[in-house]
Amino acid sequence: MIDPGRLNRRLTLLAPVETDDGQGGVVRSYGAQAVLWASVVPLAAREGVAADTDRAALRARITLRAGVTLSRAHRLADGDTVYRIIAWRSRERGALLEIDAETELT
User: Fold this and answer.
1) How buried is residue 68: exposed, middle or buried, by Cβ count under 10 Å (0-12/13-18/19+)?
2) Strand 96-105 versus strand 53-65 pairing type
3) CB contact at 8 A, 11 and 70
4) Cα(first)–Cα(last) distance of the chain, in Å?
5) CA gap 12, 32 in Å, rounded
6) What is the pLDDT of residues 24-41, one digit of tens each?
7) 60: which residues sit within 8 A by CB, 6+ positions away?
8) CB 103 within 8 A of CB 81
9) Domain spans, the chain
10) Phi and psi (nearest 5°) for 69?
11) Rounded to two decimals, what is the model's pTM?
12) Residue among 40, 33, 103, 26 nearest 74 (CA)
């Protein structure tokens, strides 16, 4: 049995939406697909530089109920914080999904 108190945050699952850019390519944006209850546990952060700007990548472990179809192109949003999905695995006999995710802080 899953302890419902563990899943204490509401995250929005964002699905990729691609539109034609008029020059033979596509523009990718994200649209809300579902709202899910989850647990978010922050992990270690790492520093880096991108486009001459100091950035920190914060990693997190996100746990949610199984039954959600994911790809690495999906994102999870918690208010203004958007998590990029790195990997996921099944836990507790397939009842939960445990997701490794990363968000950038500037």
Assistant:
1) middle
2) antiparallel
3) no
4) 40
5) 6
6) 899 999 999 999 999 999
7) 40, 41, 42, 43, 83, 101, 102, 103
8) yes
9) 28-43+57-105
10) -85, 120
11) 0.82
12) 33
